[in-house]
Automatic annotation (TrEMBL):
InterPro entries: Exostosin (IPR004263), Exostosin_GT47 (IPR040911). The lineage of its organism: Eukaryota, Viridiplantae, Streptophyta, Embryophyta, Tracheophyta. This is Probable glycosyltransferase At5g03795. Belongs to the glycosyltransferase 47 family. It holds the Pfam family Exostosin_GT47. It comes from Raphanus sativus (Radish). Residues 83-359 form the Exostosin GT47 domain. Keywords: Glycosyltransferase, Golgi apparatus, Signal-anchor, Transferase, Transmembrane. The gene is LOC130499140.
Length: 407
């Protein structure tokens, strides 16, 4: 019996050929992809790709973008964009001889306010054209009011009248209800003075030294200003762990509940150097500051407010700060990972303070100390301002908030 087969149609042959070609093509591409992963492109191709790229990413040393940042790459890219684009308009109203425009002084516990007032005028960020501004600076200084003996009640009136005048005279406030405006104050009296103007509190970005978020400070809107006591009495410390033989140190006034407890529990301890009063200058020249140099951990409890200049003193002198203050939105907290260079505790931990510090291995202390040296530049003011210093970090925080939000 003879079996005959029906010849396949041309259409079937064509489909089979196409499937074969497709399969071979996919297989070739697969092997080419594997080969490209194993073999880097020729230098000429790499150079061409780099030249054709439309995005220029500034490069910097690994020290600038180390692991003390939450997101080093984001910080690097956003900081570079800020330097290229950010513009701030300063309202020209107000007599500099009274409470406006210029700093009271660049020294003392509230020097941060004065430095910002000066730095913003020295920087590339200032624009004289309000139409190109991302943010608007309200240049009224409670620190200058305090220096002239202005009563708190009068401060409130001065601030309110000044802001109302800006709102009536210029169109910029009403475009966002003040969400693209900011003010700067370091003294807690200044914070309360601005609170007398409700329109300044609801939407405006507040750059303040007392950022306690259990009251009216809003972390994603407002900015924590580091309280820096400049000029520093002695040079910066660091890379000197072998000289730090004292476990912990604090000396100061008992002007808060946590400080009273700290002094009562630990002032007679043999391993913690705790004094319930500021060290008398009669005991020797710069004795207080020199204690920072030989201490591993410097205790930083809140005083009349959550903040303290002792934190930036500790950072400057290379002593790992121990934050002992609840509800404190630490400066640059959304940029820097404070737990990489500080010990952050709750106030209730004061009773176990010594054991907590003794339980920190020497290797961890060395890592904290080394990272502390890396962030010192962020807590230093300069005139004119210097890249990555306290002024630029505040400007970076403002840049992150310049996409306005109305409440």
């Amino acid at each position: 019996m003879t079996i005959t087969t029906k010849p396949s149609s041309p259409l079937c042959s064509l489909k089979g050929s196409l499937l074969t070609v497709a399969a071979l093509t996919l297989l070739s591409l697969f092997y080419l992809s594997l080969d490209s992963l194993r073999t880097p492109p020729p230098p000429s191709l790499a150079a061409s790709a780099a030249a054709e790229s439309t995005i220029h990413v500034p490069q910097s040393s690994s020290e600038d973008y180390s692991d003390v940042y939450h997101s080093p790459d984001s910080f690097r890219l956003n900081y570079a964009e800020m330097e290229r684009k950010f513009k701030v308009y300063i309202y020209p109203d107000g007599d500099p001889a009274t409470f406006y425009q210029t700093p009271r002084k660049l020294t003392g516990k509230y020097a941060s306010e004065g430095y910002f007032f000066q730095n913003i005028r020295e920087s590339r960020f200032r624009t004289l054209d309000p139409e190109e501004a991302h943010l608007f600076f309200v240049p009224v200084s409670p620190h200058k009011m305090r220096g002239k003996g202005t009563l708190y009640e009068d401060m409130t009136v001065i601030v309110r009248d000044y802001v109302d005048g800006l709102i009536a005279k210029y169109p910029y406030w009403n475009r966002t209800l003040g969400a693209d405006h900011f003010f700067v104050t370091c003294h807690d009296v200044g914070v309360r003075a601005f609170e007398g103007s409700p329109v300044m509190i609801k939407n405006t970005i507040r750059v303040v030294c007392s950022p306690s978020y259990n009251v009216s400070f809003v972390p994603h809107k407002d900015v924590a200003l580091p309280q820096v006591l400049q000029p520093f009495a002695l040079p910066a410390g660091g890379n000197d762990v072998e000289n730090r033989t004292t476990l912990g140190f604090w000396a100061g006034h008992r002007n808060s509940k946590i400080r009273v407890i700290l002094a009562r529990v630990w002032e007679n301890d043999t391993e913690l150097d705790i004094s319930n009063n500021r060290i008398n200058r009669a005991t020797g020249h710069l004795v207080y500051q020199k204690r920072f140099y030989r201490t591993k951990f410097c205790i930083c409890p809140g005083g009349s407010q959550v903040n303290s200049a002792r934190i930036t003193d500790s950072i400057h002198y290379g002593c790992v700060p121990v934050i002992l203050s609840d509800y404190y939105d630490l400066p640059f907290n959304d940029i820097l990972d404070w737990r990489k260079f500080a010990v952050v505790l709750r106030e209730r931990d004061v009773y176990n303070l010594k054991q907590i510090l003794k339980n920190i291995p020497q290797s961890e202390f060395v890592s904290l100390h080394n990272n502390l040296v890396k962030v010192q530049k962020h807590f230093q003011w300069n005139s004119p301002p210097v890249k990555f210093d306290a002024f630029h970090m505040i400007m970076y925080e403002l840049w992150l908030r310049h996409h306005v939000i109305k409440y």
